[in-house]
Design brief:
The protein has 239 residues and is mostly helical. It is built from eight helices and two strands. It has a two-stranded antiparallel sheet. It is globular and about 60 Å long.
Length: 239
């Protein structure tokens, strides 16, 4: 975890902290504390967040608020703005999924055609297997770009910035591709483990997951925010 180091720079605000190093361990710890402070003991907010998770554009809009580097976690207010921002984020997510849908359509469509024309099962199975692998690869590539794209949208306020691929790739390059990929893998593993454990609890697992979901979403949003900001800030001018 010590390999993921950079300098925290809050791009969306006037404040910049030059030379403050960060690693994955610190990012995880800070994100956990951020999520805990956001919900623990604040039961009214927690209930509102659970409701917002069901009315999903609201929680998506709240994610954008956290990606704007607001600390502590912002209050749930301006519901109309949260909803509209959440719808915008949902649309961005759908657009990013287009390449995945295209690959799925090509390979699974070819598999269906092969089935209808009586091709050997080996051919059909092969198309399905190759299609699944390529779809997964495309999905991962899209996700790597999408995370930074969403953060740019949150900071800049314009949907087009979510698809400013030149700026997105430049940002990832400054973070470091290896560090960036490792950071996303780790948070993905953490989130999956939590979800699997909760779902495995008989009868009430789904309810516990619904209750924990807001804290998990806040944790991930804050973590992505820290990853986005883990690039060297410009050095202050010499006195």
């Amino acid at each position: 975890m010590e390999g993921f180091q950079g300098y925290v720079y809050i791009q969306g605000e006037k404040e910049s902290r030059y030379g403050e190093k960060m690693d994955i361990g610190k990012a995880l710890n800070e994100s956990i504390e951020y999520a805990k402070d956001a919900v623990w003991g604040k039961w009214a907010r927690w209930i509102l967040l659970i409701i917002s998770s069901i009315i999903f554009p609201l929680i998506l809009g709240y994610v954008l608020e956290m990606l704007r580097a607001k600390k502590p976690a912002p209050e749930l207010e301006n519901w109309g703005k949260l909803f509209i921002d959440g719808v915008k984020l949902f649309v961005i997510g759908l657009i990013y999924l287009i390449p995945v849908f295209i690959v799925m359509f090509i390979f699974y469509g070819a598999g269906f055609f092969a089935f209808m024309t009586g091709s050997p099962m080996g051919v059909i199975s092969g198309l399905g297997f190759i299609g699944t692998i390529i779809t997964a690869i495309v999905f991962i590539i899209v996700a790597l770009v999408e995370v930074i794209g969403i953060a740019r949208f949150a900071r800049m306020g314009q949907m087009g910035e979510a698809f400013n691929f030149t700026a997105i790739l430049d940002r990832i390059g400054k973070i470091g591709w290896g560090s960036y990929i490792i950071a996303l893998i780790i948070v993905g593993i953490v989130a999956c483990i939590i979800e699997i454990i909760l779902r495995a609890i008989p009868f009430i697992g789904w309810l516990l997951l619904l209750i924990v979901a807001p804290a998990l979403i806040i944790f991930i949003a804050r973590y992505f925010c820290l990853v986005y900001d883990s690039v060297p800030a410009k050095a202050p001018p010499a006195p």
